[in-house]
Design goal:
Elements: E1 5-10, H1 14-32, H2 40-45, E2 52-53, H3 56-71, H4 81-87, H5 99-105, E3 114-117, E4 120-123, H6 135-149, E5 154-159, E6 162-167, E7 175-181, E8 184-194, E9 198-203, E10 208-210, E11 216-218, E12 221-222, E13 227-228, E14 233-240, H7 243-256, H8 258-267, E15 276-282, E16 287-290, H9 291-294, E17 297-299, E18 305-308
Parallel strand pairs: 16-18
Antiparallel strand pairs: 1-5, 2-4, 3-4, 5-6, 6-9, 7-8, 8-17, 9-14, 10-11, 12-13, 14-15, 15-16
Helix pairs in contact: 1-6, 3-7, 6-7, 7-8
Bound molecules: adenosine monophosphate and magnesium ion.
């Protein structure tokens, strides 16, 4: 998954639990890798229109991702790989594809041409999956599930931008999760107090390249344009009980931009796997958070804050 993992757990079985959780995450990373030719996703991506049998995990991840893709009106699109590859984001060989190339690739990213029948997937010829937007969240959920099976009641897991907490800190207090300042990624912009929550961030500072003309291109693509999303946000953090949902939404809400993201939060909660809160940092350096997280938010530097209420203020 091209990132670091850190898991901390407290309790009698902690050592064995950590080992089992780590093993599960590494196995998933191998299955879901888009660049490792041995992975399940790579097998799907070279099937040329033929059906491919998936493991239970990959099928579950894909099913959830397709659901979230539909719910977000295509802002999340797990079939985006032909485009992420053309931009070089998965390989590091960055390039700006021509408009003609983007126009030619976009039809190959239509999720309507993915058929998932039980655990067998068929993509139209030329289509390819990229599970990068949801894999860490899913793997985090699996790790937490395993820790629970080992009777761990206090743990924290970090997988790149994804933090998952289980219970409270060993002393019974909340976990405090820092949120990166997109304008100074080695610093924290704010932090939240949580327990039993995933805190997942997508940001334009995480992976990007700067073209010869100075334009910065980030790794999250807007499926509607085939180009890096530039909809006024620098980062989106989603907080909820399920890592997969938070990971899917952090990417999708980043693509949507502020107004659509706020509307989604107000209107679509009931269609999501669990309720969620969000923290947005705009490209012009403003902080917004939803009302359910405002009370446990601590801001670290001077930045204007707007609290988004459930009912629109008139
Ligand atoms: P995240 O860090 O969770 O926001 O995921 C970003 C990664 O997901 C990128 O590095 C791409 O591999 C992939 N990706 C980029 N844009 C999209 C999109 N609109 N929908 C789904 N996956 C995407
Ligand atoms: Mg994501």
């Amino acid at each position: 998954m091209d990132t670091y993992m850190e898991i901390r757990a407290a309790g009698d079985n902690a050592q064995a639990a950590l080992y089992a959780a780590q093993t599960a995450v590494c196995t998933l990373a191998e299955q879901l890798s888009v660049t490792d030719p041995q992975s399940e996703i790579a097998a799907v991506n070279r099937a040329n229109g033929k059906p491919t049998a998936l493991s239970e995990d990959t099928a579950a991840l894909l099913r959830a991702g397709l659901h979230m893709g539909a719910l977000t009106d295509g802002a999340l699109n797990l079939a985006i790989y032909p485009l992420t590859r053309a931009w070089g984001f998965t390989t590091g060989s960055y390039a700006i594809p021509s408009n003609e190339m983007i126009a030619a690739l976009r039809p190959l990213t239509d999720p309507a041409n993915i058929t998932l029948d039980g655990s067998t997937v068929t993509l139209a010829d030329g289509m390819m999956l990229d599970t990068g937007a949801v894999a860490k969240g899913y793997a985090g959920d699996r790790a937490i599930e395993i820790l629970r099976k080992y009777d761990i009641s206090s743990a924290i897991l970090s997988l790149g931008g994804n933090i998952l907490t289980l219970g409270t800190k060993p002393d019974g207090s909340d976990w405090v999760v820092g949120i990166t300042d997109p304008f100074a990624p080695d610093r924290e912009l704010c932090s939240v107090h949580v327990r039993d929550r995933a805190v997942v961030t997508s940001g334009d500072y995480e992976r990007y390249f700067i073209a010869d003309d100075g334009t910065r291109y980030c790794h999250i693509l807007d499926p509607a344009t085939g180009a890096p999303a530039q909809n006024g946000l620098s980062s989106v953090t989603v907080i909820g009980a399920q890592g997969l949902l938070c990971d899917a939404l952090s990417t999708a809400l980043f693509v949507m931009g502020k107004d659509r993201a706020v509307r989604f939060w107000r209107e679509k909660q009931s269609e999501c796997a669990c309720p969620f809160e969000m923290i947005l940092v705009t490209s012009d350096d403003k902080l917004l958070c939803t009302e359910g997280i405002a009370e446990v938010l601590t801001i670290t530097r001077d930045i204007p804050l707007e609290v988004i209420r459930r009912a629109e203020e008139r």
